[in-house]
Amino acid sequence: MADALGSFEQAVLLAVLRLRGDAYGRGILKEVQARLERDVAAGAVHATLDRLERKELLSSRLGSGTPGRDGRARRYYTLSVAGVRALNEAREAMTSLWRGFSWPIKARG
Amino acid sequence: MTATGARPPRWAEWMLRALLKPRDRETVTGDLLEEYREVILPARGRARALRWYLAQMLLLVGSVAFGVAIGAGLGVWILVDTAVAPLAEDTPLAVGSMFAGLLVLFAVPGFTARRRGGRARDSMQAGAIAGALAMALFCLLGIVRVNVFLDVIRDRSDWEGLIADFAGSGFGSLRAYANYVYMKDLILMPMIWASAGAASGALGGLLAAIERRPDPPHRMVAR
């Protein structure tokens, strides 16, 4: 089994999966912010994308720029086979952790 | 509303481009520019938007680039300072303040490593890398300083000890002896500052963890 994914890494990988062909840095940032319902630093998303690509869980290609970014290229990300496997393992681990509890759990004291 | 045509200050963009890996220069600065124009600047105004941009920069720049930037900045500053006032004394207070400032600075990569989702070990490692690289570069530029300004700085009062040691060293020239002493520093200081940087990085990581600490968990009831 590969290194366990952190929760933020999972959020980024799932954003890439959801966005499909439109998964570039800022799009991923907005998707992660929307799903986590909090402000997320663009720098944190880029650093995570970089780390996931080094772990070969993502691959990337360059796309064309737009006037809104002064024509600077976009880097589009795609999940690799290893990335899909890592997400499935993370989900499986989480399900296993929660087995035996009914949700939502009740607070006591 | 979008701020079409608006952009972060050129110096900030230039600095970020200089610190990013070549493959990320276009794409990452492009992403930040889009966010800056469409969301940050219209919502926060120019001053807070600049603060946002600088914060993103700190998160993006790895500990290697951070250490190189600190070491280069410090080394160039010492070179310029020597060129302007070669005989000015370095007071213990000034030297102490510089090292204290460095210790605080090396907490930054530890802080950002933890904020990126890293663990305590990543924070220590980030601080250690930044500390070692900064000091290596600083010592390297120190050797340049010695070789460029030797004829003047040999008369500094804080060189009296080195001159006295040279007399009994067996070296044929002061330049060769000074290079030998500074080369020893080049090996020793990065090792010392790797340890100091690791401690600062750990502290930075701890601060990031405290800042992000979630509410205390409720006790769970198994059914």
Task: Please tell me how large the radius of gyration of chain A is.
Answer: 16 Å
Please tell me how large the radius of gyration of chain B is. Answer: 22 Å
Structural class of chain A: mainly alpha
Greatest interface and its residue counts? A-B, 35 and 33 residues
State the helical fraction of chain B: over 70%
What structural class do helix, strand and pairing data of chain B support?
mainly alpha
Beta fraction of chain B: under 5%
Describe this structure in words.
The complex is a heterodimer of chains A (109) and B (223). With 109 residues, chain A is mainly α. Helix content of chain A is 51%, strand content 11%. In chain A, α1 (7-19) crosses α2 (25-36), α1 (7-19) packs across α3 (42-54) and α2 (25-36) crosses α3. Chain B is elongated, with a radius of gyration of 22 Å. The longest helix of chain B is centred in the last third of the chain and has 38 residues, at 174-211. Chain B is mostly helical and 223 residues long. The chains are: A mainly alpha (109), B mainly alpha (223).
Task: Give the key terms.
heterodimer, A: 109 residues, mainly alpha, B: 223 residues, 8 helices, disordered C terminus
Question: What secondary-structure arrangement, pairings included, does this model have?
Answer:
The complex is a heterodimer of chains A (109) and B (223).
Chain A: H1 7-19, H2 25-36, H3 42-54, E1 58-63, E2 74-79, H4 81-98
Antiparallel strand pairs in A: 1-2
Helix pairs in contact in A: 1-2, 1-3, 2-3
Chain B: H1 10-19, H2 25-60, H3 63-84, H4 92-105, H5 107-115, H6 120-153, H7 160-167, H8 174-211
Helix pairs in contact in B: 1-2, 3-6, 5-6, 5-8, 6-8
